[in-house]
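## retry 2 of 3
previous attempt timed out at serialization; input unchanged, resubmitting
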Amino acid sequence: MAAAPLTAGAGDGPGKAMEQTTFRRILDTGLTGHDPRQAEQGYVLFSPMNDLNQTLIIDMAGEVVHRWQHGENIGLFGSLNTRGNLYMGAKMKDEASDLFQIWPAFKGGQIREALPPARCCGPTPTPAEPD
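## retry succeeded, writing output
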C-alpha cells in the first residue's frame, strides 16, 4: 500500500504533492510544505518580514486568526502573555536615531504590551546601551 503524498502549502489546495527535493524546496519563500500528520497542532505567532507593521497568529491551515497592526516597525521580540496580549519589542524614532548610520538597527527601544484591538498600554523604555 502506497503512502499518501505529503501536502504542499495551505494555499496550494488539497492533493498537490510537496516538493521532495530539499534544495528546490528551500529556494522558495513562505510555507513550502506542511504535513499535518507530523506537525505539532497549534498556532504560529509571527511578523512577516515584508510588512513589519503587523503581527499575525495563524492556524495549522494558514488562516489568520488574529492580527495586530502597529504604528511603527516592531523589534525582534514578541510573545503572548497569560492574558492573551502581545508582548513585543518596538523600535523608537528619536534624536538618538541619527548618531551614526547603522545605529537604528542596534539601539534600544521599548517593550510594549499590545491589547487585542492594537491598543497599547504602558510602553517601557529600554536603555540605549546594553549592559
